[in-house]
Amino acid sequence: MATIRRTLLIEAPVGGVYALARSFEQLPAFVPGVAAGSGETMEARVPAGGRTLACRFLLEEAVEGASLRFASEGEAPERIEATFVPVLGDATWSTWTLEFPCLDAKEAAPAQAAVSRAVSDALTAFRDEAERRAHAARGGA
């Protein structure tokens, strides 16, 4: 099993960050790769070394304000886990872990590198939107 893990500091309160992560209907508007979302599911299309992986994620567990866990239908990743921890007053540490089945040696490195870049881009967009919303809620411009 291959794993991609990203931890980011989000300058926004944990409640808002969690609520945004749980708003599957809103994610496609600002997170690259998220194609659709509703209720307990989310769909993604991720470029991976010359091909596109299509995934449908089913929410397996949600701990209000603290964590989300998804299982996948379709291609990799098999599982996604996200945690949200309040820090520094109004900030959040969020860790996202994606587990992938082992690929054959020829396609593993380029595919994992492409997926890793896509995950980083998606999480950067997520962080930027969470921070923008928190700033607006505080009355910022």
Which tags fit this structure?
single chain; 141 residues; alpha+beta; Alpha-D-Glucose-1,6-Bisphosphate, Chain A, domain 4; seven-stranded antiparallel sheet; 2 helices
Summarize the structure in short.
This protein is of the alpha+beta class and 141 residues long. It has helices at 14-22, 105-137, and strands spanning 2-10, 34-38, 41-48, 51-63, 67-74, 79-87, 91-100. α1 (14-22) crosses α2 (105-137).
Q: For the report, how would you describe the main beta sheet?
A: 7 strands, antiparallel
First-last Cα distance: 45 Å
**CATH C-level label:** Alpha Beta
At the fourth level of CATH, the homologous superfamily is: START domain
What's the β-strand tally? 7
Describe this structure in words.
With 141 residues, this protein is an alpha+beta fold. The chain has a single domain, classed as Alpha-D-Glucose-1,6-Bisphosphate, Chain A, domain 4, CATH 3.30.530. The chain has 2 helices and 7 strands; from the N terminus they run βαββββββα. It has a 7-stranded antiparallel sheet with strand order 1-7-6-5-4-3-2, with helices on one face. Helix 1 packs across helix 2 (105-137). The longest helix has 33 residues, at 105-137. It is globular. The mean pLDDT is 87.
